Amino acid sequence: MSGTTDGNPWQDNRGNKDRSITKSSTAGGVEMAHAEAGGAVRAVAPGTAGSAFLAGERMTGGYGAADILTDCTIEAHAGEIAVIVGPNGAGKSTAMKAIFGMLKLRGGRVRIGDEDITALSPQARVGKGMAFVPQTNNVFPSMSVEENLEMGAFLRQDDFRGTMEQVFELFPVLKEKRRQAAGELSGGQRQQVAVGRALMTEPKVLMLDEPTAGVSPIVMDELFDRIVEVARTGITILMVEQNARQALEIADRGYVLVQGRNAYTGTGAELLANPEVRRTFLGG
């Protein structure tokens, strides 16, 4: 939310205003190389060369003695939307938790910018500019919408009222229901509260674990539109999503995980055009 100009920071002039804002064409100089293991496809879109802003590199780890992630790499550049998809049990949410520090890695590392944050707690990672929105239990149901947003600014020492107004501009329904208990809202509205509270921290990285789970198609489209608007401000977004096709449509980068490993990696457009990805993971 920082570094924006006057007016609504979610509505800048960067890129197109349609749903294809983050699509990268497979033409125009996209480099593709096959990885040595797993047949994964690594794609580098024009203009995204260089070091990723957020990276979980060659992550290996799990719960107890069993490894769920094996040599798994997830990256996103500043202002990008990176999406993790795959079948149930593929390790998608585990990868997200590992990057946020909720899972101790046995191998690999996590960095934000040039800083290795592998050893940091989730709380310390919040201090580095990361915000995480879990799939469930992501609002305080007995507290009002406004109080939920205020909780997101708990660690801030400055005046956060401007940030709250920005959140209300992004999600107008929250302003209408600001005095209502979050637990009384619809599923889609609660998700907006959860995302809004995360944005109150003024994050550099916003991590979303299945943000459209259990919402209607119309609400899903609206949430994806808002996610694109947030990315336009320069916030890096990493998202696990069950609605794979729709998520890849807005993705700069996509990762298909299978049994905790990278199976396919590319731009969203490349993965949508890949016959094997379509047949196996997108229903044809």
The largest sheet has its strands arranged as 8-9-10-5-11-12
Output the helix-strand order.
Answer: EEEEEHEEHEHHHHEHEHEEHH
- The residue-averaged pLDDT reads 84
Quaternary assembly: single chain
What is the number of domains?
2
- CATH evolutionary superfamily of the largest domain: P-loop containing nucleotide triphosphate hydrolases
In whole angstroms, the N-to-C terminal distance is: 38 Å
Radius of gyration: 18 Å
- CATH class of the largest domain reads Alpha Beta
* Tally of strands: 12
Structure class: alpha/beta
Largest sheet, strands/sense/barrel: 6 strands, mixed
How much strand content do the residues show? 15-25%
CATH architecture of the largest domain: 3-Layer(aba) Sandwich
Estimate the global geometry from the Cα principal axes: globular
The helix tally amounts to: 10
Output the CATH topology of the largest domain: Rossmann fold
* Low-pLDDT segments: 2-49
Walk me through what this model shows.
- The structure is a single chain.
- The protein has a six-stranded mixed beta sheet, sandwiched between helices. A four-stranded antiparallel beta sheet has the order 4-3-6-7. Strands 1-2 form a two-stranded antiparallel sheet.
- It is built from ten helices and twelve strands.
- α3 runs parallel beside α6.
- It has two domains: about 35-120 and about 210-220 and about 235-284, Rossmann fold (3-Layer(aba) Sandwich), CATH 3.40.50.300; about 130-200, Rossmann fold (3-Layer(aba) Sandwich).
- The termini are far apart.
- By secondary structure, it is of the alpha/beta class.
- Helix content is about 30%, strand content about 25%.
- The protein is globular.
